[in-house]
Amino acid sequence: MSQDHNGDNRSLGQLFASATADLSALVHDEIALAKAELRQDAKRAALGSGALVAAIGLAIFAVPMLSFACAYGIHALGVTLGWSFLIVFGAYMFLAGVAGLVGYSRFKKVKKPERSITSAKQTAAVLQKAKPHPRPLEPKDARPSVTGSAANPAIEAKM
């Protein structure tokens, strides 16, 4: 077959090297795309985690000194002490609920890397269709056999 077959003067080795480089670049680009998508989702997950940690911290520790100060401040306005503490408790639970909802909404925005999955599936489909051309099998008689004293004695010993 002539080299000018397709208007391309590259040899088979050069074509194979070019195809290998293109396939390698495709794989590297898909990995970079997946990393970019996962990095965005990791930032969203980190923000959601931070909000949930804040909600749990507020719900558990509830800043005792501020709670007492608020309760006694409400009591100074004329509300009984029991109701004052209950109002402060309700305010902290409300804040914890709001922080929890913010964290939950952030977690809902975390998605699968759809573009990477689609691209990988398309590449896999293309590669499944591409089949290598098998070389014709050579009969054993066509191969020259190496025998005699000129050949490597280690090879003859293994046979």
TrEMBL record:
Residues 119-159 are annotated as: Disordered. InterPro entries: Phage_holin_3_6. Keywords: Membrane, Transmembrane, Transmembrane helix. It comes from Actinacidiphila acididurans. It comes from the Bacteria. The chain crosses the membrane at residues 45-74, 80-104. This is Phage holin family protein.
